[in-house]
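User: Predict the complex.
Assistant: Input components as received:
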Amino acid sequence: MSVNMKRIQTIIEKLASISSVPGELTRLAFSAEDEAAHNYLIELCKPYDLSIRRDQVGNLFIRKSGIEDHLPAVTFGSHIDTVVNAGKFDGPLGSVGGLEILFQLCEQGVQTRYPLELIIFTCEESSRFNYATLGSKLMCGIANRESLSRLRDKQGNSLEEAMATIGLDFTEVDQVKRNAEEFKCFFELHIEQGPRLANERKTIGVVTGIAAPIRCIVKIQGQADHSGATAMHYRRDALLGGAELALAIERAAIDAGHSTVATVSNLNAKPGVMNVVPGYCELLVDIRGIHSEARESVFTVLQQQIEQVTAKRGLSIELQLISKDQPILLPDQMVQQISRAAQDLGYAYEIMPSGAGHDAMHMATFCPTGMIFVPSKNGISHNPLEFTSWEEIEAGIKVLQLVVLEQAEKV
Amino acid sequence: MSVNMKRIQTIIEKLASISSVPGELTRLAFSAEDEAAHNYLIELCKPYDLSIRRDQVGNLFIRKSGIEDHLPAVTFGSHIDTVVNAGKFDGPLGSVGGLEILFQLCEQGVQTRYPLELIIFTCEESSRFNYATLGSKLMCGIANRESLSRLRDKQGNSLEEAMATIGLDFTEVDQVKRNAEEFKCFFELHIEQGPRLANERKTIGVVTGIAAPIRCIVKIQGQADHSGATAMHYRRDALLGGAELALAIERAAIDAGHSTVATVSNLNAKPGVMNVVPGYCELLVDIRGIHSEARESVFTVLQQQIEQVTAKRGLSIELQLISKDQPILLPDQMVQQISRAAQDLGYAYEIMPSGAGHDAMHMATFCPTGMIFVPSKNGISHNPLEFTSWEEIEAGIKVLQLVVLEQAEKV
């Protein structure tokens, strides 16, 4: 079966143009623009014999019935929300690729034994609420109304308030949960977001497991003082405490090995003005790995360093755990199927772990799940320089199409 | 001559209530609230035989004529703009103290040979434009229209735009400059903003010199990457570069001795969201001391560390010098006069440098200038916990009153 690259390109470029910020692509979850992007995809489906449903948190389901429609669905998908100042492929690739598979089947009048379902998950990126894969977590019963009630975005809006702006009712989010029995399997096609495929000159990545993040906020209370009149030895400078922790976290991740990574993505000092010693500082910390113990060792170093920095600098430091997802191993049968498909289609492939988290890691708790990667030039993502060639995109969508049709038993 | 402490207290408390932010005292220069505070003081002067003038940048002059009114004026004053989330004494003390001296003379019908002039300088704090003592710099010819044309506040407003919101015309600021011949001397009464007087149990500080800041912004360009998918050794993390510089600056200030201090008051990372390695970071750096060479040594370390961090982390770092004021020594005759006045009034005093910058450092280039400190509890200022007792405030105002009346030759 073929794919229509012109259509794919048009849809991806159109999505890239729907942004909250002129001159860049920023489409945070639950924004008016994120909603407009969803509605654009829904409009595209209207000419086809597809059933469309959105759940209470905004997850979008586009279903093509099977000959035996009571059977569990062969599912696939990704997300379309973005980070701040994003690239155009992270999320849209798997979403638009899935759409293309459904359109082709409709256009060519092809039936499958199993029903097919494209899922576009809401709020995959943590950029708005410091909380990732919100839609898939709710759907798989990993998050619920209670666990989400304290989320706040940078403007201080709660999830309830953010959802209300696009007409969703937070009090209904527990209805988002579905049952594992509804799913035969799940596939996610995504850009790699790292440099391995490009370095190894491979077109397809077959994912063996997904590293998951430990995320926390470190709140450091010191004392705001006049920056000219306060001698160095009298200071309780919260920013310097934060700087020490950031460097210790980096060292710990390098020491941990097993491809463990750790990031302090913000170090927000208050009041943050020229003539005041910072009295308060907040760090966003993200620690990831496939190897649970290596990942845990970084968290342990952070806890130890907090004690040392507290004592040394007279600060008071609170460590607030935001989320701790478990690393996920994907089933060998899915790795095998995707590898075979890549080989049959003539694409060089690499069997590899995923450093980034994905909705697939929650779907893996429901049903056999596989992930397909295509290369990211220079490993860059979450950045306007993110780039994958249209040839590589075609390869990824064709592999996805093949494994989906095999699972769905095309007639 | 007496002072009316009830009136002083009322005016200081009233000024503390004029704020742009509910529940705290924030009255940045050129804000509507800063303007309201100026107008409040002007209203208070109306019943008295005082002439009131504001110049093109908003400096406020309240003058009581002398018997020989052509003589140079005995001047004194401070400022009333504040930092973000400020205390109530930093600035208002010297302003309200000066007002009280004028009110007493008017009420008691006392004449002086020399004219008296209270100056309330505009925009002393650097909190709005990362640029301190703007009003006195213009008045003393140390800044001019050209040197100020690039200033921007946190919202990106230029000084011209900020001034326009309160009806001032930036194109006229060069008319603010006055001539040294107009001034016989200048006194500034201020809280210490450090813990020395409190530690030494002294009521009055007699200032020998004013430490001046070197201020700069360090702009660090790295690369924004996915925080999960980018291996540690591929990263060009701007925040970590900033953390290393902040700690190096601290160490350099401690090593420099001579009471040199250095502060990184902000470390602003972009995009600053949980799942992105920071691609950009900006540091605000403030280095101060009375000892020029010690101060310079910290700046040199910063330059060296920038080279090292650039090489080590693959970053591109720009050091932008914002201002470099010269430390100022105050004339011995003023130190002597203030010491004598404190002694005559029965207050224990300490001869000491000022760590903080003040408008007095620019006035010192015009005329013999003296500074009087009162204690700051625990050395805290630029903070709502800033505290000086009303007894200490009375002591400071009485010393100011005595030296002003001696210089003005009360009849």
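Residues 292-313 of chain A form the longest helix (22 residues).
Let me know if you want any component modeled separately.
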